[in-house]
Amino acid sequence: MTTTEAPTGTELVRRLAERTDLFRKHALWQEENRRIHDESIEALADAGVFKLRTPARYGGYESDARTLVDVGAELGRADGALGWTASVYWVPTWMAGLFPDEAQDEVFATPDARVCGTLSPSAMAAPVDGGMVVNGRWGFISGAHHAHWQEIITLSPTPDGGMQPLMALVPMSEVQIVDDWHTAGLRGSGSVTTVAKDLFVPQHRILPLGAVLQGQSASVLNAESLMYRTPLLAAANAATVGPLIGLAKAAVEAFLERLPNRKITYTAYESQLDAPITHLQVGEAALKADQAEFHGHRIAELVDRKAPANEPWTLEERARTRADVGAASQLAKEAVGILAAASGGSSAYEDVPIQRIQRDVQVTGLHALITTSTNLELYGRILCGLEPNTPFI
What we know:
The chain has helices at 9-18, 20-25, 27-33, 38-47, 65-78, 80-96, 101-107, 209-213, 232-240, 242-258, 276-309, 315-341, 353-364, 372-383, and strands at 115-117, 123-128, 131-141, 149-157, 163-171, 176-178, 192-202, 206-208. The chain is of the alpha+beta class.
C-alpha cells in the first residue's frame, strides 16, 4: 500500500486536454465496436483518471468533488462515451471503499483498479455458509469490458418472508458479459449486460444496500476520509454531472469549427457566420452550457463545503443535488439541440461530431438517476414538506 500525492484538478484537466486528439481519434472506432478503445483506457490510466475515487492508502487521490466535475467535463468535451464511462467507474470505485478493509485489499490490489456496477437489484441471492450464492443479470453495465470488478445489487430473503437488497463486489472473471449494447447513443461506453450463474460471494464482500444509503460504512481505515463524508447519491451526482457539461461545450466547439466554411443553403448567406440567426443560436447555446456548468459546480461546492466540516446533510440538500444533475442534463440537451438543428444536412454524416454529441447527450439524460422530470419531482416534494418517495436520495 502506498500513498500518492494527488495532482490538482487543474493539472488533471491539463493532462486530459493534451490527450484530446487521441480520444477523438478513437471516437468512431468506439461507435462501431461499442466499447472504449484500449489505447484510450491506457491514456486515462496514464493521466490518473482511475485514481480519483481510490483510497489514498492504495495510491489513490481521494479527489474532491470539484475535480470530479471538471475532469468529467473535460472528458465529455473530448468524447461523450469516454467521459460517461470514466465517471461511472468513479461511483462503484467509491462504493468499494465502504466495504470491509479486507475486501478493499482484494479490489485495489490491481493498480488503477476499475470497478463497474449498478444500483438496480435484478438478481437473487441465496444465503449459504460464509456468504451467498447469486443468480441473475444486470443491464447497463458501462465499462464492463475493461473493468476488473463489478459492484452488484441482489435481493436476498429475510426471516420474515421479505426481501433485502444487498450490495456486493465480484471479480469480472466470475461473471459473463452479454454483448447486447446496440443503442442510439453512448455506443462507445459498452454498457452491456452481465450475468451471474451460481456465483459464490464471501461475506466480507457483502453489505446491506439500505445501510449504505443511510451513510453507514464497514470500513475502519476510511472512517476519517473526507471522501466518505458524503451520501452515496450526492457523491454519484458529483461524479456523473461532468460529462453532460462537457457534451454541451463540445457542441459549441464543434459548431464553431465548421462555421466559417458553411453557407446556408437556399439563402443569400454564403457564410453561416454572417447570419444574425447564427449569432442568436450560438449565444443561447453557450449560455445554456454555462448554466449546466453552474449546476455541476453547485453540487461540488456543497459536497466540498460539508465534508471538511462533517456536517449532516438535510433532505433538501440531498434532493437538490439530484435536481442539479437533472437541470444540467436538460440544459445540456437544449444547448446541443440548438446547434445540431443549425448544423444542416451535412451534419448527419457519422464523421461529423455534432450528431454523435446529440445522441450521446440524449442517452445520458435517460439514466434513471439523471432524468430531469424524476429529479425535479423529488426536489419539489421535499420543498413542499413531503417525504421522499425513494430511498435513493
